[in-house]
Design a protein that fits this description.
By secondary structure, the protein is α/β, with parallel strands linked by helices. It contains three helices and five strands, in the order βαβαβαββ. α2 crosses α3.
């Protein structure tokens, strides 16, 4: 099972990304990545990471899981470190970033999924 711990729920993934995830991991379950205030210190980030880690472990203790994790960098680092200690695989999604500059100076950005990459 793939636990999608990110700000990008499965409902907005491209078919290419969904198909790759199902082929590699089977079932996909969303677990929303929390908002992380820039005012938090590292102690608060570590507490949040521990809480999320324990909840995911407790909800899935009898399942083989991989964590797809993308979000605020300091929390991602703490979470990946915790999952690694438990030998639970963590992956991120890679993509080509395609930028179209508009006449008004704004930009449209598209992400074309390529693959899942292991953190370690």
């Amino acid at each position: 099972m793939l636990i999608n711990l990110s700000n990008h729920p499965l409902s907005i993934w491209s078919n290419k990304q969904k198909n790759a995830a199902v082929a590699l991991y089977g079932e996909i379950v969303d677990y929303p990545f929390p908002h992380v205030s820039p005012d938090k210190d590292i102690g608060e980030i570590k507490e949040l990471a521990q809480s999320i880690f324990e909840e995911i472990i407790n909800l899935n203790e009898d399942k083989e899981i991989t964590i797809h994790i993308m979000g605020e960098f300091s929390l991602v680092y703490q979470l990946v470190s915790l999952f690694q200690l438990k030998k639970i695989p963590c992956v991120l999604s890679t993509s080509h970033r395609i930028v179209e500059e508009q006449i008004d100076g704004s930009k449209k950005v598209f992400f074309d999924f390529v693959k899942f990459r292991s953190y370690y």
